[in-house]
Design goal:
It contains 3 helices and 4 strands, in the order βαββααβ. It is an alpha+beta fold. It is globular, with a radius of gyration of 14 Å. The chain has a single domain, classed as Alpha-Beta Plaits (2-Layer Sandwich). Helix content is 33%, strand content 29%. Keywords: Monooxygenase, Oxidoreductase. This is Antibiotic biosynthesis monooxygenase. GO terms for molecular function: monooxygenase activity.
Length: 106
């Protein structure tokens, strides 16, 4: 389960995928499969979540890693490069962005 706190020292990655209602489910399945079969088994992986908007035009992904280098190493693997090419074909665009938790509430 993701931990959202300023003291964790974890690397947080937020990725937004822009898609269409016609391809949203296919993209969601591809992302779910990537996490289940590969990403979640990579060194430094902590947790992740996938979110779909009501219009099925965007998928947001929240993932946490022990270190930014762990996330970058996963992206550089031949398997993830191949998966990202297939994912790219299912969406208009996607961009992973690394963040640090600045504040939490509640």
């Amino acid at each position: 389960m993701p931990t959202i706190a300023t003291e964790t020292g974890l690397q947080t990655v937020l990725t937004t995928f822009e898609t269409t209602p016609g391809t949203c489910q296919d993209l969601l399945e591809a992302l779910t499969e990537a996490y289940a079969e590969f990403i979640s088994k990579q060194p430094g992986f902590i947790a992740a979540g996938l979110h779909v908007n009501d219009a099925q035009t965007r998928i947001a992904n929240y993932s946490q890693w022990a270190r930014r280098e762990d996330f970058q190493a996963m992206l550089r693997t031949p398997e993830m490069r191949q998966r990202n090419r297939a994912i790219n074909d299912l969406c208009k665009s996607f961009e992973p962005v690394m963040y640090e938790v600045a504040a939490t509430f509640g």
